[in-house]
Automatic annotation (TrEMBL), chains A, B:
<dbReference type="InterPro" id="IPR046342">
    <property type="entry name" value="CBS_dom_sf"/>
</dbReference>
<keyword id="KW-0460">Magnesium</keyword>
<dbReference type="Pfam" id="PF03448">
    <property type="entry name" value="MgtE_N"/>
</dbReference>
<comment type="subunit">
    <text>Homodimer.</text>
</comment>
<dbReference type="GO" id="GO:0046872">
    <property type="term" value="F:metal ion binding"/>
</dbReference>
<dbReference type="InterPro" id="IPR000644">
    <property type="entry name" value="CBS_dom"/>
</dbReference>
<dbReference type="InterPro" id="IPR006667">
    <property type="entry name" value="SLC41_membr_dom"/>
</dbReference>
<feature type="transmembrane region" description="Helical">
    <location>
        <begin position="437"/>
        <end position="459"/>
    </location>
</feature>
<dbReference type="InterPro" id="IPR006668">
    <property type="entry name" value="Mg_transptr_MgtE_intracell_dom"/>
</dbReference>
<keyword id="KW-0479">Metal-binding</keyword>
<dbReference type="GO" id="GO:0015095">
    <property type="term" value="F:magnesium ion transmembrane transporter activity"/>
</dbReference>
<dbReference type="GO" id="GO:0005886">
    <property type="term" value="C:plasma membrane"/>
</dbReference>
<feature type="transmembrane region" description="Helical">
    <location>
        <begin position="369"/>
        <end position="391"/>
    </location>
</feature>
<dbReference type="InterPro" id="IPR038076">
    <property type="entry name" value="MgtE_N_sf"/>
</dbReference>
<comment type="function">
    <text>Acts as a magnesium transporter.</text>
</comment>
<feature type="domain" description="CBS">
    <location>
        <begin position="203"/>
        <end position="261"/>
    </location>
</feature>
<keyword id="KW-0812">Transmembrane</keyword>
Amino acid sequence: MPEETTAHPVEALLRAVEADDQSAVLAIASEIHYADLAQAYQDLDEERHPVFLKSIGPELAADMLVELPESMIEEALDHFRPAELKVLFRELSDDDRVDMLQAVGDEARLRYLGLLGPEDEELTRSLLRYEYDTAGGRMTTRFGRLFASMTVKQAIEYLRRDQDNTETLSRIFVVDAKGHLIGRVRLRDLAFNTWDTPIRDIMAEVGSEQRVLATADQEEAANILLKYDLVVLPVIDEFDHLLGIITHDDAMEILQEESTEDFERFGGIAGDQDEATYLNTPTFSHFRRRAGWLVGLAFVSIVSGYVMMRFGSVLSQAFVLSLFLPMVVAAGGNSGGQATTMVIRAMSLNELIQGTGTRVAWKELRTGFLLGLLLGICMALFTAFILPAFSPGLPAGIGYPRLALSVAVALTAQVTSATFLGSLLPFGARAMKLDPAVVSAPAIAAIVDVSGMVIYFSVVRTLLGL
Amino acid sequence: MPEETTAHPVEALLRAVEADDQSAVLAIASEIHYADLAQAYQDLDEERHPVFLKSIGPELAADMLVELPESMIEEALDHFRPAELKVLFRELSDDDRVDMLQAVGDEARLRYLGLLGPEDEELTRSLLRYEYDTAGGRMTTRFGRLFASMTVKQAIEYLRRDQDNTETLSRIFVVDAKGHLIGRVRLRDLAFNTWDTPIRDIMAEVGSEQRVLATADQEEAANILLKYDLVVLPVIDEFDHLLGIITHDDAMEILQEESTEDFERFGGIAGDQDEATYLNTPTFSHFRRRAGWLVGLAFVSIVSGYVMMRFGSVLSQAFVLSLFLPMVVAAGGNSGGQATTMVIRAMSLNELIQGTGTRVAWKELRTGFLLGLLLGICMALFTAFILPAFSPGLPAGIGYPRLALSVAVALTAQVTSATFLGSLLPFGARAMKLDPAVVSAPAIAAIVDVSGMVIYFSVVRTLLGL
């Protein structure tokens, strides 16, 4: 992963804030990108925030706030007076304003809605109906929209009048008189055609799969953008009315959020992905997101401990048998975790549609068997040829070949079954309408620890006659 | 994760291929998006590929091939005759052609280069100098480029002449007479300004951080696009000459690839991310990518086994001590894995720049201690109040409170140290110029298994006097 190169202006900005030099802060902040501004803000101690925000004023703050983690929004807005907030909210695009209002408490949201003009308030309230993580919750209504009956000349004039209110003109959508989505044109089609050409003649169709319902999951929208290499995805209602657009940069953010969520869930971290950065999250929040799984899984481990306790007499007959117990147990956790990793990732890349469970299970059964066999053979060779040099003391009447065979059989059985189980559990979670990534690496390990104990002791008792 | 809805045309296409009805295949294939075409191709059995490719011909195949996993490219190209390949390569944009030539063997690459026209061959050879995973390797040279000295009218005519050769006109870059990048204009600036306006007057500056060196890592390029919400990122050489652009859809693919790679590495899957889908990857490839870690870690587990064997006499003094051993060991793996998950993810989101290691370690030390304490208290309560009901038999002279204390101390020590270690190892990997995600969940578990054994037996021996 490449290092972020710290731009010098950001450092100068931080120094100006420390020195409480408001005009210097404003001067530097006006020059740099809002993404850098947001980074600088997050790097500051909290007591510097008021100086920073007062210096840059509501116009510059608006763009910057969009880039902040949700958890920092309300505190930042609190530093502005109502008149400043009016300016700030006017600066924001509709989707960003909605995101911001979704990030604050109910009381603040009502207060802020009252600061918007009547038109903005109505629009914002209608957008607030969609959940944050739906296509409707992420869309903007600031986009180029033309009527099919216009000419190129009318279209250019229409767009020019409204150009400050559109986020992108790289794709312009065409609607009929009733607002149904019927096509799209590119700005280049307007720029490169004669002025009397009707829009109807130069528009392209929008395929039924290249649009998304406002109520659909945000991830579905992002995947459509990704699959069809779109810059802009139109969002419609169930009657095909064009409501808004989702842009490529939203899609990138969504994909980033979703893959972070998968990654964290799989690592046994509970709760929604916190938008705050790792270092900005307080220790206690880190603690809270991990404690649940850790305590829950500890109780599952008691089952492993119980099995071990019950078979304690086997181990006490020859200490050498302890040598292989952790390996058999761990090999299950490792191979099961690998299988789960592959399946969860393939699921989030939309590769495993409904009905592929059997094919996956069959593939993993074979993969698991091959892995178990390989591991079994390696460890059998170790037991038969290297272990004797350490003369660890075998149970009475048992030779190294028989011990090697037992270890190999136990490993093969454990790895095969753990791999198989690890590949199936995400399907089980999906069938129960859960995120497959709840089958985390620690969870799978805890489960196959138990089976590993049972398999090892059963095999050793049977094959060695203990 | 939402389900992919299977479009009916794709099914019709598959049926037409099965029926060997070449004209039906062509008719349907001409109507659907190349991404769907590629999906249909991958869903077919290999023996149907020749029929499919012959039916759609080189023009349609060109766009589709771009969407295929690398491993399927060479086989697909093999089905075309040289004359068809000439057409196919002419259809491709320069960056796609380069990607394709990078996906085939050396012998095939030379043969294919010979099929290109002299101009294309020279361009392709110059692009092949950049590694696949660098900004230069991903860029396209088909982009809108204007000279600062042009007027709007000249610019529009210049772009119109060349419009089939540009991938995007949403951002057009401006160069000086020597080809240095000096600004950018949007197509809307051209469309909405009078024809005699000089480009120099309407162009915007391109910040020094909003460009990327051709030799930079592809992930750096994607992160710049993401950070600054760009549609297009200019790629330059060390003298600021504009060489090409990377578009937003490339960035999405790069981010997807990189997060898959992180996820798989962390799950203990070795090797580069295979571009083939899970189900299209043969069982033996799955086996190969997992076997290395599995065998390596099994040998690490022998160390755990050795510790257990050495302390076997402790366990044999009271079987109840076995009850907590798997828990202490597993709690380390779980908490260490959680810490590693958080750190690796924060690193790939570029949150942890150089020099933050100490802050992370301190945060994790506190988090780990809190987690260990919580777990210790839970299990002490269990041991003191619930366990006695099962009268498991304690070592001579030891009461439940003392056992509870030992378990609590061992858990706290194990979870604290495992969390601390889990957070530091990715920094270690990074310092050694490795991908931090090589510190996989299984690797951290194997390491803290050993420390867990040592901690548990030491604590039990000391506090219980065994």
